[in-house]
Amino acid sequence: MIAFDDLMPGQVVVLGPTGASRDEVLAFARAYDPQPFHLSDEAASQTYFGRLSASGWHTGALMLDLLINNPDWPLACRGCHEIRDLRWRAPVYPDDRLSARVTVIDCDVPEAQGAGRVTLDLLLSNQDDATVAQMTAVLAVARRI
Amino acid sequence: MRYWEDLAVGETHRYGRYELTEKEHADFVSRFAVPAVVGADADAVPGYWLCCIAMRLLVDHALTDMASLGSPGVDRIDWPTAARIGDVLTLSTELLSARVLESRPEMGLIKQTMTLENQRGDAVARMWTNALVARRETAS
C-alpha cells in the first residue's frame, strides 16, 4: 500500500486508462443527470457537446475510482475531507480512453487515527491528450505502522 | 423558461425529497469506488454519491425550467454530517452571484450553493457551484 509516509509534495503518478461505454454513460445520466443532452445524440447535437457525452458527475466518479481503487497505485486512503476546484474542461464521450495525472501538492502533519492529510491535484486527459477535467482532493491517508 | 435575467442574487429554493436506499447505494458503489467521508462511521454513505443525488434533484426541480448551458465546475465540496441509508434528503440552493461573461455575452455565469440536508436539517453535503445560463435578450 502507498502510505502517508511514502508521499512527498511534487511526486507525480499517472493512472489509467479508464472510461465509460455508451450504455454506462446513459445509465449514469438516467440515474443522476437526466438532462436531454446527456440522454441522446439528437439532443446533444443542438448543444456545445455535439453528441452524447458523459455527465460531469460521471467523469468525477471515474476520476475518484481511478484514484481510490487502483492496483497500480494502492493508496491507503481512509477518507476524503473535501474536493476543491472540480472543473469540467471538455466533453467526455463514450469509449474515450482517460488517464489521470496525479500530483502530490501537500502532506500535512498526521492527524487522529494514524492518518495524514494529503492534498492531490488530478488532471484527467483523453486519448488525444486534451484535458477534460480536473480536481483537487484532500484525503486522509494511513501512516505506516 | 427562466433565463439569466430572471434570476435574482440571494434567491433561495428547496427541492424534493430523496430517500437513500440500500439497493441504490449497492448499485453505485459496485460501479464506482469513491472515498468515505473522513471521520464518518462505517455505515455512513460515500460523500460523492450525495453530490450525484443533489444533481438529480437540481435537474428534476430546477433545470427542467431553466435555460441551462451546463457547468464549468464546482469550487468546493464538503460533507459536514454523515448520511445513512434511510435518510430522506432535501436540496437547498442559494444564488450567490450572477455576471455576464465578457467573452460570451450570450450567457451568464452564476455561482450558487447547493446544500443537501437530512430530515433533521443537518447538511450532509455542501457544494459551491458554477453554472452557465442563457440570456433572454440574446436567445434565438
TrEMBL record, chain A:
Which InterPro entries does this chain map to? HotDog_dom_sf, MaoC-like_dom, MCH/BMMD
Any Pfam family from its record, for instance, is MaoC_dehydratas
Q: Gene3D superfamilies this protein is in? A: Hotdog Thioesterase
MaoC-like domain ranges (all copies): 21-119
Q: Which domain of life is it from?
A: Bacteria
Task: Report the protein name in the record.
Answer: MaoC domain-containing protein dehydratase
TrEMBL record, chain B:
Q: Which InterPro entries match?
A: HotDog_dom_sf
Q: Which SUPFAM superfamilies match?
A: Thioesterase/thiol ester dehydrase-isomerase
Q: Which domain of life is it from?
A: Bacteria
**Which protein is depicted?**
MaoC domain protein dehydratase
The species this protein was found in: Salinisphaera hydrothermalis (strain C41B8)
